[in-house]
Request: fold
Amino acid sequence: MDRIEKFIARAGNAAKRALTGIAGLFRRSRPQVMRRSELTAPRVRTAASAVPGRSRVQSRLSVQSLIAGVRSHFSRRETPSVGGAHGTPAVRRPVSIFCPRPRKRNALLAVVITTGKFAILLTLILGLSGLGAVIGVAKAYVDTTPVLDISKIEDQAETSFIYDANGNLITTFTGLENRMWAKLDEIPQMLQDAIIAIEDVRFYSHNGIDLKRIIGSLFSNLRTGSTQGGSTITTQLIKMRLLSSEQTYKRKLQEAYLAIQLEKQYKKEQILEAYLNTVPLGGSNYGVKAAAQDYFGKELSELTLRECAMLAGIPQSPYAYNPRLNTYSRKNMELTDKRTNSVLLHMYANGFINEEQYERALGEKVHILEQSPVKQMYDMPYFVEYVIYDVVTHLLTQRKLVDNSTNRNIIENELRTSGYKIYTTVDPEIQLSLEDTIYNWPDYPEMANEKDSSVVVLNPDGTTQQIAQPQAAAVVYDYHTGEIKAMVGGRYQPTTKKSFNRAYQSTMDVGSSIKPLTIYGPALDIGYSPASILYNIPLAIEGWATEQGYPSNYGGGGFTGTITLRESIIESINNSAARLLLTGVTLNEAYNYLVSLGVKSPISKTGSGLALGTTGITPLEMAAAYGAIANNGAYSEPFSFTKVVDSHGAVLIDTNEIRIKRQVFKPATSWLLVNLLTDAVRNGTGGRAAIDGITVGGKTGTNSEQRGVFFAGFTAYYSASVWIGSDHYDPLYARAQGGRDAAPLWKAFMERIHKEKDLTDRPIHSATAEEMGLIRAEVCTISGRLATDACREAGATTTDYFVSGTEPVWECDAHRYMEYCAESGKLAAAYCPAEGLEQRVIVTLPDDSPLMRLKDADLLKYVPNVFKEYALVSDPEFTAENDRYHEFYCEKHTLEWYENTQHMDALRLDSEALIESVERKMSDSDYVLLDSDRKLLEQDIAALRALLAREDAPLQALRDAYETLRARSGTLLVRTGG
Reply:
């Protein structure tokens, strides 16, 4: 084959030299012969004239017409050109070259001409001798031609399209080739005509190859040494899709062969459509639709005649005629304009436009977009880029491919080049509200250290960028439909594509926002109620892996002893939550609930990870999980798109068919959680998320050492989450809190969304408590049992919801009434006087109560009326003989005291009676008293009365005074006469 190639090359060179000589002879003897397309004056097509570009159906050229055309071609010569307007090529008028000879030919010249003729004849003879070899090589070229693969023409890289929830185009998604396939009836006729006029004016009449152009280009190539020209629209399509761009006779022969085959299988309209969607038009633009949007920002139907001509002129040299480069970079738009004018002239010359259209188009101004829309940042970049990630993820799952970077790149390239239509869930109104709020929020917290206020990151393209800190991310999710409505992955509008999207790529700690998902929700599911009693005490928890043995509450204190589950949520108490996790829910169950709620981020299966939120969960996962709480406990997989449709209209993914849905929380649990979390906003740490006139539920989160703040919540319409923190996990200022810093930002964008969407308040749950099977009961806040009067007197009751059948049935046995001796302040003993007794409420605890393990001082601090030894003192065998009896019982009112009290009472009565008797006798005239004796008796009466007036009068003193008066009165008071 190499020797044959060399032979062909030598034969070709010989033929080239001979023909070059002939051409030179003709140049010296006659005016230059022009191609008919250059000599024909502009024709204006009439309705009756059949123009190739318009008729769509042409009979093949007959041999006679071909001969006539050749004869006509050589029967004309040109006259001097006259310059055209607007820089257009001059229009040359044809003149016949067959004119009478004005004088007799010179003899010497005749000899030279005759000799030349013999030379030509000899060259032709030599050429014919190699004809067989040439035919053999040509056959070998044809035999090695690739098979006509129609799929390579039909299946070309096409730009994909991304639409919002309203069906409006957000952006295109393109690869190296920006191509948007357009049906032929979408492409303006004048654009079709422009392409045909400049590229292949006999397109509708040839069979794939244009013999007239081939003959003309052959002479030109032999004269110039090139291998250009002679191509048709069909052969160009073959070259672009099936063959290489090498400039060889072999490739041209194969190209022609395949073109003829293609014309047999495809209609002209189909070939033209494929060409117009395949042809390179500068930059990354392939096809007229993509180029129209890229250069002019227009749809095909909006193009002007000059814009059509400009596009038609680009294929000859897409780089040289690129209108954007020539307008803004090279400052050489004259080159593109000159080519455009040439296209217009060809349209005019071949009857595609009239003179008025031609002149008007020459003077038309065209505006070229300075920046390519393909290379510009698209709208809603964080959402758009997550959509691509989301679609790729589900295509990998659908095709059972490993989710790694290699497979992701393959699928993403498929999205860029397959002409897919991706219909997203984004609500532009909500997205723009979220973006505007996040990008312009004035109250972001400061970093604890000034040096942490910015970090340097590496961009996907290898460049570095300085990013201000703290950063933020937020997601708005419609939990009714499972659709993500808005997403922002950073504090600022992205300036580069594929920026870090914290809404789904960052897994920073969420703090206490995790508690409803891992602790309170699961606890309610297994029978706890909002009134269940939890312990908030400084006591080690089994399984808590820290040196202290239990978590501290925010600020390092706040222990309360007992606390209800509702109070624990409202006040965001770490200690009680951790104790409930490890002693009630368990780590395994908490972990399983997170997985069921769609959390795919790495979960820290530890006490702090599941109770304090040191587990990193993305804002997207949190928004979906909180949506499950509001959605009757049902989780719905969040999608950023509804469907993906291929270029033929077939649905590749329909999210309604693949969406994962599952019941995570019981409906009653969901109702209770919503009730608890709305209370947390009304009365607890989430107060700054409250929206006037809208029911809001949610939970704050503050990471340890203020390394980030979080808020997740919901209304009757959407759930949403927001995170603020450092990309490098550096601390915020000392007082940073989820309630102080994240909740207000959440309120700002959610309030705006509800206002702009004209959403009015409505219950998050349409069902009532009764319909959910819930009842209310008053219980003791110490024992958790039904409240008694003793509980109420102690102020230790709460009324809350219970799932019917789980409410307590036993009355509280912790609060009891006990009799105390008012005088001693201790429990009343058997001899304590009745009038000195009083009823007091005490708190008794079972021995297995965690409170019983506290130090006495702490126990009395958290339970002031606790009676720790109640079991001891209430034992019937615990009597006064016990050494510890008087620690608890009154030691004043003993048996001796009782006995003495009885004697005293009798003595007092006797003393009162004695005084009365003596005084009566002293006033009786029957008794005679000396004044000195009277005086003694009066003194004794006064002394006795003084003792009687004293409550604490000693019994003996009273007895002595009584005996003194009785004895003296018996001696001195003697009746007269007797």
